[in-house]
């Protein structure tokens, strides 16, 4: 095994292409690899683009065919979660199982002791830290990766503070991707239209009632998976005041709505906590958390953990806490302590 061999995940996009060039400049023996996850033209084109970039910068390129595993572990979980009335975050599971799981195992077989990606995040002293790039930080999506993998991860884009700088570097390296658009949020959802995707996957439109907390019926819905916590538009109900989705009641197949104030609460119950730092550091104050990827860091008042359940009390009420999403913890240095899946 070469001391400085790294396998970088090549998507055919700007970030991973520039990251590969940076690693090569830094003296690493760089190998490119692309995970073949989906049977569609976009994926085939991405693989073709990645192979072309690797040839241009003079590194080997491999393809890891993981289509069946991705279908069973990521897509199936996504569908199952919506059937349970949850709003899942498949990117977090994919990062744990694939990009920093199976990918790392495959990299070791190629003689590498490092893996790299074009993620916007930092690793310092084996700690995951938020990126400084406004609106681009991806540490939230990495909260469930295994702690033991951290010493083997490189994020070459960490020292840059803007996406425009990355595009500028792509032009300087003469890469044919400098103007390529960023990838969509969920790779297997065409045009980010999850409702159509779920319908095509067999989720049935089972009609039910839209009700107030006092069980007053206001209208009908055509399938719980079409609604999310905090939603206001598209309810097709008439009421004297604006109403929002407060809860999805799977047992009774109802959408519960109410005024905006009912969306705010101070407590979160979550499960499957994954620690990226020593568990005792959770007791340090102040401590913060995000309950959605683009949310703010909210100060925590207290945390109580029993067995596999973690109960978090925030200093101030948080709006639209959504089952299936993740609560991700940070300290004052913006180091990520880990994250857990929200139950309620």
Give the tags.
SH3 type barrels; alpha/beta; 6-stranded antiparallel barrel; Elongation Factor Tu (Ef-tu), domain 3; 3 domains; 17 strands; 24% helix
Work out the number of β strands. 17
Reported CATH architecture of the largest domain: 3-Layer(aba) Sandwich
Strand content: 25-35%
Q: Largest sheet, described in full?
A: 6 strands, antiparallel, barrel
- The shape is globular
Characterization of the model:
- The protein is α/β, with parallel strands linked by helices.
- The protein folds into three domains: 5-190, 3-Layer(aba) Sandwich (Rossmann fold); 204-258, SH3 type barrels (Roll); 264-342, Translation factors (Elongation Factor Tu (Ef-tu), domain 3), CATH 2.40.30.10.
- It has helices spanning 14-25, 41-57, 67-83, 90-109, 163-172, 194-200; strands at 5-9, 29-36, 60-65, 114-116, 121-124, 127-130, 153-154, 208-211, 217-221, 244-249, 254-258, 264-275, 287-290, 298-306, 309-319, 326-331, 336-342.
- The strands form four sheets. It has a six-stranded antiparallel barrel. Strands 3-2-1-4-7 form a five-stranded parallel β-sheet, with helices on both faces.
- Helix 1 packs across helix 5 and helix 3 (67-83) runs antiparallel to helix 4.
- It starts with a strand and ends with a strand.
Offer a quick outline of the entry.
With 344 residues, the chain is of the alpha/beta class. It has six helices and 17 strands.
